[in-house]
Design brief:
Blueprint (H helix, E strand, L loop, with lengths): L2 H17 L4 E3 L6 E8 L2 H13 L5 E4 L16 H9 L3 E4 L12 H18 L7 E3 L7 H10 L2 E3 L9 E3 L6 E2 L7 H13 L3 E6 L13 H13 L7 H7 L3
Parallel strand pairs: 2-3, 2-9, 3-4, 5-6, 8-9
Antiparallel strand pairs: 1-7
The protein binds zinc ion.
The site of zinc ion has 5 residues, from strand 2.
Length: 250
């Protein structure tokens, strides 16, 4: 596919997906919640990131694209099959991120179905007890044409549109705030938590690597710790997307 056409389709499809064909759901959580999610996922998220979450008795959601596993992405080394199984055994959620990390706007219905099935087989071969309930759009690109299909396959789909999810949300276009040093600072994180408290909302962070010198898509351990402390100070429970949806009555 021509790259310019692909990126035009991505911009338009994502914009339309933000506004049209919502799967509206009224969140019924009793208090604010936070979820830490990691996409792709880099080994440092599975080791350092997951370990820090566990220090705070929290569990995260790792959106895995099986086709990226055990490879160098250009920015990080991606988790191996053993890393994914280990995350699952430690109580973290494994979500779907397509198999080959292709924008939803570049996939026909049949191609998306094949991607989901391939990733499902990959994950279930690691451990058949993995429950694949939630999806994150590769590159954060939502797709108007694929939303309905994803809504049948998953409880939720997450983009990268910043903001707190509160009140009536679109389960197939959940908002997520970057936990990325290039995009947010400590004050920004604190403001997001304050907004979650004020709106009884669900704050979802997305990130990638967790390194002292992170990629442009990742965070430092210090920024992750700041966010975990900010949650603990406000007594906001940090939980996987699956558990948050359950608390919200979805
Ligand atoms: Zn990704």
């Amino acid at each position: 596919m021509h790259p310019a056409w692909s990126s035009l389709k991505a911009r338009i499809g994502n914009r339309l997906a933000r506004h049209l064909r919502p799967q509206p759901f009224r969140l019924r959580n009793n208090g604010p919640m936070v979820s830490f999610t990691f996409d792709d996922a880099p080994i440092s998220a599975a080791t350092r990131g997951a370990g820090m979450l566990e220090e705070y008795d929290a569990r995260g959601t790792f959106y895995v694209a099986g086709g990226l596993a055990d490879s160098w992405s250009g920015n990080w080394n991606t988790v191996s099959a053993d890393d994914v199984a280990d995350l699952h055994h430690r109580g973290h959620e494994i979500g779907c991120h397509t198999f080959s990390h292709t924008r939803a706007t570049d996939l026909t219905s049949a191609a998306m179905a094949a991607e989901l099935e391939k990733n499902r087989r990959y994950l279930l071969a690691l451990d058949p007890s993995i429950r694949i309930e939630n999806f994150a759009y590769p590159y954060g690109t939502g797709s108007l044409l694929r939303k309905g299909q994803l809504g049948k396959a998953f409880r939720s789909s997450r983009g990268i549109l910043p903001g707190v999810n509160s009140g009536t949300v679109d389960l197939q276009y959940l908002r997520a705030t970057p936990l990325v040093d290039c995009l947010i600072d400590r004050d920004g994180i604190d403001r997001a938590f304050d907004e979650a408290v004020a709106s009884n909302g669900w704050l979802i962070f997305y990130g990638h690597d967790v390194e002292a010198e992170p990629s442009p898509y990742g965070c430092t351990p210090a920024l992750l710790r700041h966010a975990l402390e900010a949650a603990a100070r406000r007594k906001i429970p940090a939980m996987s997307v699956a558990n948050a949806l359950q608390l919200a009555g979805a």
